[in-house]
Amino acid sequence: MVGWDKLASPGELVLVASPVDAGITGWDLATGAQRVHLRSCASPRHGLTTVGQHFVAASQIQKTSAGGALIYWAWNKPQPEIKSFPVEPIGPVACNSDGTYFVGGGSSGRIYLWEVASGRLLRVWSAHYKAVTRLIFFDDESLLISGAEDGFIKAWPLLIALDEEADVQAESQFQPLHNFSAHTLPVTDIVSGYGGCSAIIVSSSLDFTCKIWSLALGVLLRTIKFPAAVNAAVVDPGEYALYAGCTDGRVYIAALNVGTTTDSIHGDGIIGTLNDHSRAVTALAFSMDGVLLVSGSEDCTVRVWDTVSCQVLRIFKHAKGPISSLIMVPLPSRGIFSDNQVSLHNKGRSFLLPSPLKKYREPRAGDPGYTISNGPSVILPSHEVDSVDGGCFNTLLAMKQQIKELQQQGSSTSIQMELERLRSEYRRSLHMIQQWQQVYQDLHYFCVTELMGGNKVGEDDEEDDKNNEKGKKGRGKATGRK
């Protein structure tokens, strides 16, 4: 173990949760020191994620069937910061990289999409026939990929999911971009490859297999069979090997290259194993440098492996409970665990935290039973707007001023999240201005070339008619004189 610290990526945190009330624990990957312990958490499989750089979020296993709970923790506070209560128990959760959108998979097969800053429930749709077991954002965050107990893997376009102008009466008609259905038992894990639309997707299942899918073609490329049911899967950053954590306590290594074969006793394509856990492996993750593999198990331990030598470099003991979720978190440059850092609630001034996630979606025009009386109120500006461009320009100026004021107030969790939301609105307003300018140019062209041109032609025709009439009268007078 001497010198292994040099291999570890600096500033990485190994964060784990348990299905029993053992809290959330985090260890520094480089030093092995425990850096964080958050209380009051009993999380299901894949029920742990981070919300930007400011919060840790986890779904909760409820002892009753009255519903689930979603909890936020601030890094420097062991007690839960925000609690939300959805309409049904939530299993897997995920959040996009900048912490603006949060998704959860329900036991009914529905997927819930929230806006983090406001807590608004943006969309709910029936994604699967059985409970959702895994949710991930695709590498470029253009897709949300889901897996469930029904054995299906589906890819949902986020552009449509976030479109509030879409048909709100057809939630059940929201169709996935891809619908993969080759597993015969529940899906346990999903891994997204790299390369955009040409990337691969790897899924694992209790049917003893991992399947490799082509996102571009929408077809199954390969199936790798393992000696035991697969609980977790991960692909090395170079996409050379697939690591599968199985119920027999082993991590099997399989070559992703289709042409690679082996005479291993474990099966075709399996090139090695990592053996040290005494019970089922439940979670896998790679370090940022792609050298270290971290595995969590039902034996209440986390092991750090050197993938080159296949040796265990360090063991973290989470003695209070088995591991249900494991994620790798890059630490920011400044210590987020320091007691001297600025708190979310300063003396004399309180910053707003993100709102709790709403239980129901707000009614919108087109919803059944929607009326003007129960719709959202609209406040019109008190000043007159002379043009569309002027109105949008005033909105942009107001947004710029608001962002500037927030930046002058100092850094805090809520301020940063609000800034991200305002910047997104600012970019959206710029896009709207471009659209309105194009509409204005089209209308101007129509008025000048069509309407004004048409009037001129009409005036010329009318003038010609008058001249012809005068010519007829002149000829009649001349005939009378003769």
SSE layout and pairing:
Blueprint lengths: L11 E6 L6 E5 L5 E5 L9 E4 L3 E5 L10 E5 L7 E3 L5 E6 L5 E6 L3 E6 L5 E6 L5 E6 L5 E6 L4 E5 H4 L16 E3 L6 E6 L7 E6 L3 E6 L4 E7 L4 E6 L5 E6 L3 E6 L14 E6 L5 E6 L5 E6 L3 E6 L4 E7 L7 E6 L14 E2 L2 E2 L37 H21 L4 H69 L1
Helix pairs in contact: 2-3
Q: Could you characterize what this model shows?
A:
The chain has 482 residues and is an alpha+beta fold. It has two domains: 12-165 and 175-332, YVTN repeat-like/Quinoprotein amine dehydrogenase (Methylamine Dehydrogenase, Chain H); 386-462. Helix content is 20%, strand content 33%. The protein is built from three helices and 30 strands. The strands form eight sheets. Strands 3-2-1-28 form a four-stranded antiparallel beta sheet, with no helix packed on it. Helix 2 runs antiparallel to helix 3. The longest helix is centred in the last third of the chain and has 69 residues, at 413-481. The termini are far apart.
Produce a short descriptive summary:
With 482 residues, the chain is α+β, with helices and mostly antiparallel strands.
